[in-house]
Amino acid sequence: MVDEMECNPWLIEVNTNPCLEESSPVLEELLPRMLDDAFALTLDRLFPSPKTSYSYVVENELSNENLWELLVDLRKG
Asked: What are the boundaries of each domain within the chain?
């Protein structure tokens, strides 16, 4: 969260063991795509992949667009 006055960030929770169990049809669709998109923003930037399209399509979403947003690129000092 970010405070209203000075836009200072506040960490409100740390989950050391997130559950990634595909326990419902919605999670079966979203979790693989979420992980693929997260890796595309992190690992693929360090180790580029020749991948041109997504393997996991989420209903009603564009299949070649990352559903996450990169907020900070720590490599840019």
From this structure: 24-49
pTM for this one? 0.55
Distance CA 35, CA 33 (A): 5
Rounded to whole angstroms, the Cα distance separating 19 from 1 reads 22
Give me 28's structure tokens: 């079966």
Alpha-carbon gap, residue 27 to 58, rounded angstroms: 11
For position 52, what pLDDT does the model report?
Answer: 60
Amino acid letter, residue 26: V
Residue 9 pairs in a beta bridge with: 2
Whole-number pLDDT of residue 58: 66
